[in-house]
Write a structure and sequence with these properties.
- The chain is of the alpha/beta class.
- It has one domain (about 1-205): TIM Barrel (Alpha-Beta Barrel).
- The protein has six helices and eleven strands.
- The strands form two sheets. It has a nine-stranded mixed β-sheet with strand order 9-8-5-4-3-2-1-10-11, with helices on both faces. It has a two-stranded antiparallel ribbon with strand order 6-7.
- α1 links the parallel β1 and β2 (about 35-40).
- The chain is globular.
- The protein starts with a strand and ends in a 5-residue tail after the last helix.
- The model has no long low-confidence stretch (mean pLDDT about 95).
């Protein structure tokens, strides 16, 4: 079955976000998504299975590494910020987890060293991030990076306000409608990314 999952979302546990868990669940239902991942800044979410009811909630975190932001899934312990890309990925893999390079190219946000990304052993590349700017140009550049590395492509809203939850998302071919199905699809690379940009007002966290 095909699942639509927003794989990059911040809750109020990130100091710069206004999104509650309840907001994210409600917005996913409104947008017709099957689930979302909680990727708060430099802290690992702990959410019980089934907390979202019919909406899948995947625990994770966004790690501030040197020169990049990295999404980590299927880990039990948080990975510290400030490490190199390669060491951050090694720490994630050491727990049996998955490492996704988040918005690798985005003007005024992140602009990664492609050679360093290539040498770091990432599992996927986030090509569609609703906050990346300019959206279409960065989508092309991020997609080119994923193609060069031969890595699966993902998408996420990077939501910090409820209104933009689901603005970008990942399509996954999964055998089951649960966390394990999402993780297995990611590991197999059975993914694609969809989405569009947020507005200027949404970027300023207005019109929540």
């Amino acid at each position: 079955m095909q699942l639509r999952v927003d794989l990059h979302l911040h809750t109020v546990n990130s100091s710069d976000s206004y999104v509650t868990l309840e907001d994210a669940v409600r917005r996913c239902r409104e947008e017709g998504l099957d689930g979302f991942a909680v990727t708060d800044h430099d802290q690992l979410s702990t959410i019980s299975e089934g907390a979202g009811g019919d909406i899948i909630i995947l625990p994770g975190m966004e790690i501030s590494a040197m020169g990049a932001h990295i999404l980590a899934f299927d880990i039990a312990e948080p990975v510290p910020m400030g490490l190199s890309m390669a060491e951050t990925v090694d720490r994630i893999h050491g727990q049996g987890g998955m490492a996704i390079i988040a918005h690798p190219y985005s003007v005024l946000r992140t602009w990664v060293n492609g050679d360093e990304v290539e040498d770091s052993g990432f599992d996927c590349v986030e090509v569609a991030n609703a906050y990346q700017f300019p959206y279409r140009l960065m989508l092309e550049r991020n997609t080119a990076l994923a193609d060069k590395l031969g890595l699966p492509k993902t998408g996420g809203s990077d939501a910090h306000i409820p209104k933009v939850v689901g603005r970008a998302y990942t399509l996954l071919e999964s055998e089951t409608r649960d966390r394990e199905g999402v993780l297995e699809a990611l590991r197999k690379g059975e993914t694609s990314a969809e989405g569009r940009s947020i507005s200027i007002l949404e970027r300023l966290k207005l019109g929540r």
